[in-house]
């Protein structure tokens, strides 16, 4: 999974469950920080559109070349392309009253707001865009990949956890019965399948992975994946179709198989330890 990067998601070169749509829904309904993605996508789109302007206009609006005389600034403000869009972006992502306010450094915000008065050059948003990107890359994206590896829904995970606990309780009740009835220790070995299945279900719920679904290349849809996406995104980037290259899915399957192999050894080890403890219990506690 290390070869799957945030750039793969943003450039839409990956397919479900690691698509841009999947990431947006995860940020919207799980992380509650979709503003980072919205702003970064807008920034990339705006860069492309701004760079299509005539070279002399771009040069004139470069922050380091802007005059500081009030008369010239007043005239320059009227000449700025995309002024209304920039004002809307600042209102949405950098206003303290906005529901989509970005969590950026105070110094970054203050510098951006000061420069935005004089220019609409995309470079004034670079620092904020990088902060949003690195926040997603080092935090939200890590959890998103962990969630994507799971092929079970929360409801199934809860069911498996409860079922595993019930099986383990039944196993220990069986041990208690052999003790009360003064049965030999080796009679407790009949409980081995119950313990194996119980531990398997508990580990399955902990990992969120079902072995049968891994080898069938199937997964359960998580609740938030069926929720609609907002249509109010100001980004002009349009969703492209998913890539037909199954690279990301293959990466997920490989990671799931690696986890299953580790889980297999854990199940065997835990089962052996539990059975040893059960066999060590005296035939009679009296």
TrEMBL record:
Keywords: Membrane, Transmembrane, Transmembrane helix. PROSITE patterns: RGS. InterPro entries: RGS (IPR016137), RGS_sf (IPR036305), RGS_subdomain_2 (IPR044926). It holds the Pfam family RGS. Residues 23-144 form the RGS domain. The chain crosses the membrane at residues 159-180, 186-209, 259-281. The keyword Membrane applies. It comes from the Eukaryota. The keyword Transferase does not apply. This is RGS domain-containing protein. It comes from Basidiobolus meristosporus CBS 931.73.
């Amino acid at each position: 999974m290390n070869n799957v990067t945030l750039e793969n998601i943003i450039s839409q070169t990956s397919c479900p469950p690691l698509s841009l749509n999947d990431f947006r829904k995860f940020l919207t309904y799980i992380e509650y920080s979709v503003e980072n993605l919205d702003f970064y996508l807008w920034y990339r789109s705006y860069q492309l559109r701004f760079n299509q302007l005539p070279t002399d206009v771009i040069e004139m609006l470069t922050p380091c070349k802007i005059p500081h005389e009030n008369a010239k600034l007043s005239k320059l403000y009227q000449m700025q392309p995309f002024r209304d869009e920039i004002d809307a972006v600042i209102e949405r992502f950098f206003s303290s009253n906005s529901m989509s306010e970005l969590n950026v450094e105070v110094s970054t915000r203050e510098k951006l707001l000061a420069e935005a008065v004089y220019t609409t050059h995309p470079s004034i948003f670079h620092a904020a865009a990088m902060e949003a990107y690195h926040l997603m890359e080092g935090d939200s994206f890590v959890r998103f990949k962990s969630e994507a590896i799971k092929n079970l829904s929360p409801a199934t995970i809860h069911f498996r956890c409860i079922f595993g606990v019930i099986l383990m309780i039944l196993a220990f009740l069986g041990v208690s019965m052999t003790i009360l009835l003064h049965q030999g220790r080796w009679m407790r070995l009949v409980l081995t399948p119950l313990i194996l299945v119980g531990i398997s279900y508990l580990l399955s719920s902990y990992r969120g992975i079902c072995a049968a679904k891994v080898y069938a290349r199937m997964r359960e849809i998580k609740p938030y994946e069926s929720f609609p996406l907002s249509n109010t995104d100001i980004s002009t980037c349009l969703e492209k179709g998913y890539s037909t290259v199954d690279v990301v899915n293959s990466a997920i399957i490989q990671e799931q198989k690696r986890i299953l192999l580790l889980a297999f050894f854990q199940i065997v080890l835990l089962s052996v330890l539990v059975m040893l403890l059960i066999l060590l219990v005296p035939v009679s506690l009296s």
